[in-house]
């Protein structure tokens, strides 16, 4: 019985503050839509693949050598995003940025037990994202032999600009949906907060719930019009 009463109270609170909840859902969704569609710039992505391998000079490729190459992949990933590589990329492309900022646009990924490295670049310009991805691969291929004992770098695929590039960020519909859920949760939370803070007695049912006593009678309210009508009649009787 207590569970059903609690559920009824919850539904009453939500119904009472339904306008507030719906308003917050629309406000949060609207703000998110404005930011996603008109404020946040579209971000485009380009990707290239390179293969890092060692020349064997005609000798059999040992299993230990394969393990060593795989362990060095993490080192190569760090080198790709290092200032040694990125400074040359910036100079060759005449980019107006810093190595630290450019490093934040580059994501280096590789599958487990694979010597194939994926270089993914995000930029506001689809053309520039392609140019940066390809240039990073080229500079890495040129510089890695002098930095480490690696003499066999192959570029498996180069980044290409599609005819109709589509941005990968922001996900506008997802942002609006998340904002709507946040608005819903915020509205429900405020509704329960207001209900918790509101200790005034408004109905007969409130009195019964607080005092746990039945109501014996109700004194009806008297309007000013009724009061004005009743006062002259009483005066006449007195005279």
TrEMBL record:
Membrane association type: Multi-pass membrane protein
GO CC terms: plasma membrane
Location(s), subcellular: Cell membrane
Database matches in InterPro entries: Bact_polysacc_biosynth/exp, GNVR, LPS_length_determ_N
Polysaccharide chain length determinant N-terminal domain residues: 3-93
Transmembrane segments: 17-40, 173-197
UniProt keyword Glycosyltransferase, yes or no: no
Keywords for this protein: Cell membrane, Membrane, Transmembrane, Transmembrane helix
Keyword Nucleus applies: no
Location (main, coarse): membrane
Domain of life of the source: Bacteria
An example Gene Ontology molecular-function term: protein tyrosine kinase activity
Domain Tyrosine-protein kinase G-rich: 141-193
Family as reported in the entry's similarity comment: Belongs to the CpsC/CapA family.
This protein's name: Capsular biosynthesis protein
Source organism of the structure: Lysinibacillus antri
